[in-house]
Design a protein that fits this description.
This protein is an alpha/beta fold. It is about 35% helix and about 20% strand. It has helices at about 15-25, 80-85, 90-110, 145-160, 190-200, 225-240, 260-270, 295-300, 310-329, and strands spanning about 5-10, 30-35, 50, 70-75, 115-120, 165-170, 175, 205-210, 220-225, 245-250, 255-260, 275-280, 290. Helix 1 (about 15-25) crosses helix 6. The radius of gyration is 19 Å and the shape is globular.
């Protein structure tokens, strides 16, 4: 049965892919985005687009954007640069926390009782046990992670007090691409697109921050999840959300790949030489970050189907080439 959804931040990387999956499933989609970090061309065809901020939902300028005709909200409208959050924490508290508070108030007013929230593994900080489960202690090491954790607490209170049906999905390393949606952060901080920039000749080399970690090849190990697998989890979360409950699920492949494995995979996929430079360890970089997705598997019926690193890199490479082609044309 077709339903109607509001996707906040739906012009961004993950939000646009989720919006595309919702449309492909036959649903009606409205994207709300201020385009501060999102891209108009990433909004999937068929979605209604409103250029605006989530804060506007709580004032006169956004009156009527959210009403009782919507079945649920999928919330991606957050700033997500860890480094920036350290130098400008107010920006993150104001938007990520204050904006979500405005969104929740607008949902109560409109009578929209279901929310799927884009949370993050940054809520865990530097975990002491791997793989990481939802029972792990939450100790974020940046205002970004702290802001997301604050929202998770806010949502739990909303579920208890007002019967909100909510699911928070805590992502680990999202990668790959889907159609015309892929990673194009500015500045870029994620490993796979950075290595691909070297293959494209946009960077001279990729820095490897530490090669003496207690891992098989000495470099950090991270859990990469394909953005399309991630999108599928959101659709399942909409189906499983239960009034008065706040379910939190980690999303990852459950397997990690090292920095050197990523670099070597990029070399094989692209056929390009990728020079690397040894650099000192970065403060706060754990040796291994790998998720346990058991809760998502058991509670949502989710199963990642694109766990192969070469496939993830190949999709990201296609998008990088597509993006370069659009700039040249």
């Amino acid at each position: 049965m077709s339903k109607k959804y509001l996707v906040t931040g739906g012009a961004g990387y993950v939000g646009s892919v989720v919006a595309a999956h919702l449309l492909e499933a036959g649903h009606e989609v409205t994207v709300l985005d201020d385009l501060s970090t999102g891209h108009r061309e990433g909004i999937p065809a068929g979605a209604r687009f409103i250029e605006g901020r989530i804060q506007s939902l709580a004032d006169a300028s956004g009156a009527g954007w959210l009403d009782s005709s919507y079945d649920a909200v999928l919330h991606f409208a957050a700033f997500s640069q860890v480094g920036e959050s350290v130098t400008d924490p107010e920006k993150y508290w104001r938007n990520n926390v204050g904006g979500t508070m405005d969104l929740l108030a607008a949902m109560r007013t409109a009578g929209v009782g279901t929310l799927v929230f884009s949370s993050t593994a940054a809520t865990y900080g530097e975990p002491t046990v791997t793989p990481i489960t939802e029972a792990a202690a939450t100790a974020p090491t940046s205002p970004y992670g702290a802001s997301k954790l604050a929202v998770d607490h806010m949502i739990s209170g909303e579920a208890t007090a007002h019967g909100l049906a909510a699911v928070s999905l805590r992502y680990f390393n999202v990668a790959g691409a889907y159609g015309s949606s892929g990673e194009r952060h500015d500045p870029e901080s994620h490993l796979i697109p950075l290595v691909l920039q070297v293959a494209q000749g946009k960077r001279d080399a990729i820095s490897v921050y530490g090669d003496d970690y207690p891992t098989p090849d000495g470099t950090c190990v991270r859990d990469y999840i394909h953005v399309a697998d991630l999108a599928q989890a959101h659709l399942l979360a909409l189906e499983k959300a239960t009034a008065g409950e706040h379910l939190i699920c980690n999303l990852g492949n459950g397997n990690g790949f090292s920095v050197r494995e990523v670099i070597e995979t990029v070399r094989k996929v692209t056929g390009h030489t990728v020079p690397e430079i040894a650099a000192p360890r970065r403060a706060g970089d754990p040796a291994v970050l790998v998720a346990s997705a058991r809760t998502a598997i058991d509670k949502l019926g989710w199963q990642p189907s694109r766990a192969d690193l070469a496939g993830i890199v190949a999709d990201a490479w296609k998008f990088a080439q597509y993006l370069e082609g659009t700039k040249e044309s």
